[in-house]
Design a protein that fits this description.
Shape: globular
CATH superfamily: P-loop containing nucleotide triphosphate hydrolases
Distance between the termini: 6 Å
Structural class: alpha/beta
Number of helices: 7
Number of domains: 1
Largest sheet: 5 strands, parallel
CATH topology: Rossmann fold
CATH architecture: 3-Layer(aba) Sandwich
Order of helices and strands: EHEHHEHEHHEH
Strand order of the largest sheet: 2-3-1-4-5
Helix content: 40-55%
Number of strands: 5
Strand content: 5-15%
CATH class: Alpha Beta
Length: 168
Amino acid sequence: MKRNISLIGMAGVGKSFTSRALADKLDYKYVSADELITREAGKMGADKNMLSDTVFIGMEESVIVSLQDKTNTIIDTGGSVIYSPKAMEVLDRISFIVYLSDSLKNIKKRFDNRREPHLVGMAVGMTFEKLLAQREKLYEKYAHIKINVSENRNGLVSEIVSEYKKIR
């Protein structure tokens, strides 16, 4: 039985906003993997935005593994969680995984507005477009359902809750 809901998707797609709305609707706890990573990086005296991709992914994996005993929780993952098979295996075991998707144009606009300094996978020569295409395959591989946020803006939370109740 899936005791939690995890949202995956590209940075800027709306995972945090949707996660909080789901937590309110279901009266579940809300956990932000990014906030936990920020805390862990701070314990090391580091800024999470300055970590190498390898260190960041390892920290992200540890944070997800630490959640494996959670119940009745909405897990707001980072967009790069799909780079850790171990983290995704834990999420698959403990949660209903929802992939929030949107058009490149919409995601890029929201991401740029956030002015985040770091995006895992943005190596030299990589574009946002190429990174999204690369990640989309992994998001689809791990998700139990995929929902386009622009096509379901008004009923997004209700649709996720409805799908979640089918598997509980």
